[in-house]
Specification:
The protein folds into 2 domains: about 130 residues, NAD(P)-binding Rossmann-like Domain (Rossmann fold), CATH 3.40.50; about 220 residues, Dihydrodipicolinate Reductase, domain 2. Helices cover about 35% and strands about 25% of the residues. The strands form 3 sheets. It has a 9-stranded mixed β-sheet with strand order 16-15-14-13-7-12-11-8-17. A 6-stranded parallel β-sheet has the order 3-2-1-4-5-6, sandwiched between helices. Strands 9-10 form a two-stranded antiparallel ribbon. α4 packs parallel to α5. The chain binds nicotinamide-adenine-dinucleotide. Nicotinamide-adenine-dinucleotide (NAD) binds next to α1 and α4.
C-alpha cells in the first residue's frame, strides 16, 4: 500500500467532492494500491480553507495555493479552483513533479488546456480529469453496446447538456459568466463534458459548425468564494454584463462520417440537469439521461426496454448490492479518485487524463471559431 499525500487547490463544490471521494476509495475499491492522506487545503477565502481542515479532514490549511504545491508531504494535488487558475496551478504542479486530478475544462481557453497537456505528458506526471459523465454504469454499458456492434451501423447522434442552474435572471454573476475567469461560457462548462462524452461513445470529432447566444445579458454580481453557481441574489445589487454564451448548438461530424447535434444551455426552464444522448444505429438505439442516471433505454428487435442498472453493469457492484438501488453523482467522482490513486501507485496512466481533455479542447476550439465564422470549422492542432 502506497500512502499518497494530497493537496487541495480550491474548496468550493468540487473541492469538497474530491476530498470526500479520496476518503471513500478504500471502502469501494479496497484493492486500490494508493491510499490518500489529506495534507493541506488552500482557498483564497480563509473561511473556506479553514473549513477544509475542520470539516474535510485536512491536517493543514492555507490561503496561498503555492504553499500546497511546495509542501514536501504533498505528492499529488486536486485542482478545483475556477477555470482561470487551472493553467497556472497545473503548470506549477507539473514543474514540481506533482501528479494532479484536475477539474474540467482544465484551463480557461482550449489553448491553455493543450499547453497543460503537453507539459504534463513531457514531465510524465499522472493525471486524471473530471470528465465524470463517462462513469455512470449505464453510459459504460451504452458504450459497450455501440462498440460491440449491437446497434448496427450508427447513423444518428443527438446530445443535449442543458441545465437550469442559471435560468433565474437573478442568478448570481459568478466567475462562470466572465471571459477572463471562465473562458467560454456553457461551452467550457457543460460543453467540455458533452464533447468528451460524444467522443467516448462514437469516436473522434473532426469538424463542427455552431451558433451561440447570451439569453440573460445582465446579472447581479457576487464576490468570489460566496455561494454556488445555483445561488439567487435578491435585493438592490448592481447588475453587470454576462460576457460569454448561455446557449449553443453545434452540428458535429465524427471521423466515421457520422453527423450529429449537440445543444448546451445553462438557462433553460423545464430541464434541470438534462444531460442526455440518443445514439441510433441500423439495428437498435440507446438513450440516457443523467436525471435518471441508473437507467438506459435500449431499443432492439422493434421494441424498447428500460434497463435498470445492477451488479452486472460496470462499477455498479462497487456501490450498491442489488439492481434498482440508485447510485448518485458523488459515486462518479469516487471512480475518478480510484483511477487517480491507482495510477500514482502503479505508474500506469488511466483515462480520462490530459490527453483526452486536450482532444476535447481542440473540438471546443473549432466550435468557438464557428461561433464567429458561421462556417464549418476543422478540428486542428493548437
Ligand atoms: N466535473 C464536474 O461535474 C464539475 C462540476 C462543477 C464544477 N466543476 C469544475 O470545478 C472547478 C471548480 O468549480 P466549483 O463549482 O467547485 O466552483 P466554486 O466556485 O464552488 O469553488 C471554487 C473555489 O475556488 C476558490 N478560489 C478562487 N481563486 C482561488 C485561488 N487563487 N486560490 C485558491 N482558491 C481559489 C474560490 O474561493 C472557491 O472556494 C471549475 O473548473 C469547474 O468547471 C466540475
Amino acid at each position: 500500500m502506497k500512502e499518497i499525500g494530497i493537496g487541495l487547490l480550491g474548496v468550493g463544490w468540487m473541492g469538497e467532492v474530491h476530498s470526500t471521494s479520496y476518503r471513500r476509495v478504500p471502502v469501494h475499491y479496497p484493492e486500490c494500491e494508493g491510499r490518500a492522506r489529506l495534507v493541506v487545503a488552500a482557498d483564497e477565502v480563509e473561511e473556506r480553507a479553514r473549513a477544509a481542515a475542520e470539516k474535510l479532514g485536512y491536517a493543514e490549511w492555507t490561503t496561498d495555493w503555492r504553499t500546497v504545491i511546495a509542501h514536501p508531504e504533498v505528492e499529488a494535488v486536486s485542482i478545483c479552483a475556477p477555470n482561470f487558475m487551472h493553467r497556472e496551478m497545473a503548470l506549477a504542479a507539473v514543474e514540481a513533479g506533482k501528479h494532479f486530478w484536475g477539474e474540467k475544462p482544465l484551463g480557461a481557453l482550449p489553448q491553455d488546456t493543450v499547453e497543460i497537456a503537453c507539459a504534463a505528458e513531457a514531465a510524465g506526471v499522472r493525471t486524471i480529469v473530471g470528465l465524470n459523465y463517462r462513469n455512470p454504469p449505464a453510459v459504460q454499458h451504452a458504450r459497450r453496446l455501440i462498440a460491440d456492434g449491437e446497434l448496427g451501423e450508427i447513423n444518428h447522434f443527438r446530445m443535449q447538456f442543458v441545465a437550469s442552474y442559471s435560468a433565474n435572471p437573478r442568478g448570481a454573476l459568478s466567475w462562470r459568466f466572465s471571459r477572463e475567469l471562465s473562458g467560454h461560457g456553457i461551452l467550457s462548462d457543460l460543453g467540455s463534458h458533452a464533447v468528451d462524452l460524444a467522443m467516448f461513445l462514437c469516436g473522434p470529432i473532426v469538424r463542427a459548425t455552431a451558433t451561440s447566444a447570451i439569453l440573460i445579458p445582465n446579472r447581479p454580481k457576487v464576490q468570489m468564494g460566496t455561494g454556488t453557481h445555483f445561488s439567487v441574489v435578491e435585493g438592490d445589487v448592481e447588475l453587470r454584463p454576462v460576457e460569454n454564451e448561455d446557449w449553443c448548438a453545434a452540428l458535429v461530424e465524427f471521423e466515421s462520417g457520422l453527423k450529429g447535434t449537440i445543444e448546451l444551455s445553462r438557462v433553460i426552464v423545464g430541464a434541470e440537469a438534462r444531460y442526455w444522448f440518443e445514439v441510433n444505429g441500423t439495428r437498435g438505439a440507446v438513450a440516457w439521461n443523467f436525471e435518471r442516471m441508473n437507467e438506459l433505454e435500449h431499443y432492439r428487435d422493434g421494441g424498447s426496454a428500460r434497463v435498470l442498472m445492477g451488479p452486472s453493469h460496470p462499477d455498479f457492484a462497487r456501490f450498491q448490492p442489488g439492481q434498482g438501488i440508485p447510485m448518485g453523482y458523488d459515486d462518479l467522482k469516487v471512480i475518478e479518485a480510484y483511477r487517480f490513486l491507482q495510477s500514482i501507485a502503479d505508474g500506469v496512466q488511466r483515462e480520462p487524463g490530459v490527453r483526452e481533455i486536450a482532444a476535447t479542447a481542440r473540438v471546443l476550439d473549432a466550435v468557438a471559431r464557428s461561433f464567429e465564422s458561421g462556417a464549418w470549422e476543422e478540428v486542428r492542432d493548437l
